[in-house]
């Protein structure tokens, strides 16, 4: 049976290491026959070991479905343009009967000193930096990719419940996720006439580098106790739901925030936690 992504090609951003949500989704997409171009954070000029690149190379080097690996700081317009030029060289554009079928945005950052502060005390610079990387980057990538997106292409970003409700400790990143959720809806409206879908996957806590910085360790026990399923989600599950939203299986779904959290967001009280079960 042909895989879900057979003949489909696209761009995956946000792989830092094996634990990254972007990697869980990319693995599933490639297992299902998709071909992917990847980006990684550029290495610092004095980092002779090229650790950022090296970590991703280790993951993709033996996989023939990885078509390229390019450095990209998403706040640098030249980097974004270079990545899109590479996408066009590898995948073509709708003008040449090719183009991008899927685009994964799995990027977020807030300066640790601001992330740790109560939102009320967040600095102006920290706020701007967090919003530029975690929110505007979705606009920048979508805008740059627009001429290359196939008429039924799918754009997916990663969000978190802390953008809908106050989650103590998530702080400025919650404000970023609220803006990201709104961005998904505006982009869905604006790119809809081109046939392009834009959605977000709202994942429950997962052990990743960014997740640990945003306080997931404290959240894991709470989700286990409160979520209807009584457990946390897995990397495999985030891979499956991500692949669903990037694939034609979700055609007709756009502007959606899909919660993948064992049902945690459905609860209006601590439930079993209150009953001591
Ligand atoms: P991760 O650290 O593996 O991924 C974050 C990625 O952002 C990294 O690859 C990093 O290199 C990239 N990045 C940061 N600044 C960048 C920049 N300037 N330019 C380009 N790339 C940059 O962690 P993750 O948990 O896989 O995070 C991916 C997404 O999932 C984020 O948006 C995060 O907020 C979201 N998310 C995570 C969780 C969780 O519990 N881990 C839950 C819900 C949503």
Automatic annotation (TrEMBL):
Q: In which pathway does it act?
A: Lipid metabolism; fatty acid biosynthesis
State which Enzyme Commission number(s) the record gives. Answer: 1.3.1.9
Query: By its UniProt entry, which InterPro entries does this protein fall under?
Result: Enoyl-ACP_Rdtase_NADH, NAD(P)-bd_dom_sf, SDR_fam
Top-level taxonomic group: Bacteria
Location of the active site: 160 (proton acceptor), 170 (proton acceptor)
* Binding of substrate, residues: 110
Q: Which family does it belong to?
A: Belongs to the short-chain dehydrogenases/reductases (SDR) family. FabI subfamily.
Full protein name: Enoyl-[acyl-carrier-protein] reductase [NADH]
Q: Which organism is it from?
A: Botrimarina hoheduenensis
């Amino acid at each position: 049976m042909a895989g879900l992504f057979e003949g489909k090609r696209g761009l995956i951003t946000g792989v830092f290491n094996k634990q990254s949500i972007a990697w869980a989704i990319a693995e599933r997409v490639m297992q299902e026959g998709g071909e992917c171009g990847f980006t990684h954070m550029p290495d610092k000029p004095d980092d002779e070991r090229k650790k950022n690149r090296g970590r991703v190379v280790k993951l993709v080097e033996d996989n023939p479905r990885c078509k390229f690996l390019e450095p990209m700081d998403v706040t640098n317009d030249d980097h974004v343009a270079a990545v899109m030029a590479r996408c066009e060289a590898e995948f073509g554009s709708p003008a040449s009967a090719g183009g991008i079928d899927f685009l994964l945005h799995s990027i977020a950052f807030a300066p640790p000193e601001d992330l740790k502060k109560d939102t009320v005390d967040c600095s102006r610079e920290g706020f701007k930096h967090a919003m530029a990387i975690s929110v505007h980057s979705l606009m920048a990538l979508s805008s740059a990719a627009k001429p290359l997106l196939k008429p039924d292409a799918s754009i997916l970003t990663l969000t978190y419940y802390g953008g809908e409700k106050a989650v103590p400790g998530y702080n400025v990143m919650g404000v970023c996720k609220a803006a990201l959720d709104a961005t998904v809806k505006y982009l869905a409206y604006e790119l809809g006439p081109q046939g392009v879908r834009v959605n977000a996957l709202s994942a429950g806590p997962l052990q990743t580098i960014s997740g640990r910085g945003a306080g997931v360790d404290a959240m894991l026990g709470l989700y286990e106790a409160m979520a209807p399923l009584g457990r946390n989600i897995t990397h495999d599950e985030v891979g499956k739901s991500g692949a669903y939203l990037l694939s034609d299986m979700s055609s007709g779904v756009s502007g959606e925030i899909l919660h993948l959290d064992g049902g945690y967001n459905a609860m209006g009280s601590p439930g079993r936690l209150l009953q001591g079960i």
